[in-house]
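Bumping with the actual sequence this time:
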Amino acid sequence: MSITSAIVLFAVIWFMVFLIAIPIRLKTQGDMGEVVPGTHAGSPEVHNLKKKAWITTFVSIGLWIVIAGIILSGWISVRDLDLFGRMGPAPGFGDTGE
């Protein structure tokens, strides 16, 4: 895995975890009982995004270490995910793949 692949993997994991974490413990204006005129009652009143971003970062680092370790170890490869056999046989040692 190259450095670019590692960064992209971390970014994908981070955003997936962040999108999961955003609605946790979210308090809306309707929940608080003070809806600002011109806004929806479901608009967030207390969102704690900074805290959620830090928690997301720490969780993402742990997940990234596990997933990157699996990828680098070769325990699971792309060929293992080829359910329909479209990739063909793996090239042998010394084959050029042509």
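The tokens above came from a reply further down the thread. Helices lie at 3-21, 29-32, 49-73.
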